[in-house]
Amino acid sequence: MFRVVTYPEAAEQLAALPSHLLADYARVLDTIAAAPWDGAPQNANNPAAEVRRWLFGPLGVAQVLYLGPVLPKLARSAK
Fold first, then answer.
1. 1 belongs to a structural domain
2. Using only C-alpha atoms, what is the Rg of the chain?
3. Tens of pLDDT, residues 1-29
């Protein structure tokens, strides 16, 4: 299990989330903590990059951008 850290700079955006999206957001954080590499790469042309994203809410109306765990390239290429 990985630890998810939310940067203080995101506090204003999180406070602006509609209340009906908060449960979905919490589920995304739980998923990221359990399997961070399951998120899509932010740049599809660089699928091994650490910057990942996860869409949530109805029809994917919101997204979480995050820096995945930095692993040695050898370990990632084995996946």
1. no
2. 13
3. 888 888 899 989 999 999 999 999 999 99
